[in-house]
Amino acid sequence: MRELISCFAAFGMTVFLIRLSRIVFPWLIELNYRHAGLLGVMRDDFVKRVNSGSDDLPSMKRNATVNLAENVMRFDFSSRELPGLLQYGDTVSMANGIESRLPFLDYRFVEFCARLPIDWKIKSGQTKYILREYLRGIGQINTANRKDKKGYPTPIERLFKFNDGEMLRELLLSPDARISAYCDQGKISKLLNRYLSGQKRSENPLYRLLSAELWLQECIPAPV
User: Tens of pLDDT along 177-224?
Assistant: First the structure.
């Protein structure tokens, strides 16, 4: 119960229920991808070409010898969360001539944390329990008691919705849009309109589509 209350305080009821439903009903993830994500806007012929030449996307295979929390953390670490975050961090740092260092990913520290019992990671409703206890011991009380995790938020919703999605419409729905070779512009238009009307929170797929379009324009020669 303490862990539930802590989760509600940190993320709110809506986020908690969404995350719980993804674990209990994993098929909802694919359904969401098809209705409000990238799978829902891709061209059928492109999807068939991709599926015919590649393995299935990684899925969370549960190890029956450990509990659910450990399984989720291992999957996040190996497949779902960390690889993408490392790629983003490396891209942004290298673009600014900075070589970043990640002391929490020293292999000896990672191996140590992997061997810790679950009660040292989540206890009495607190995540990162052993780290928080260390911070309290050196006087960093406010940091140790923080419940939120900000990351590097950007005003992407304000940017996307500016002037009724003008930027997204010009880049993704233009007759010359390079993304049209892979995605159906009619479906992109529906996704964008639902997002602008407040029916769906689709910043992530729209951001991916925008990034792909800009990358195609910048890096791939246009077909003659």
Answer: 999 999 999 999 998 998 898 877 788 889 999 999 999 999 988 776
Residues 6+ apart with CB under 8 A from 195: 160, 165, 201, 202, 203, 206
Taking the complete model, does pTM exceed 0.70, yes or no?
no
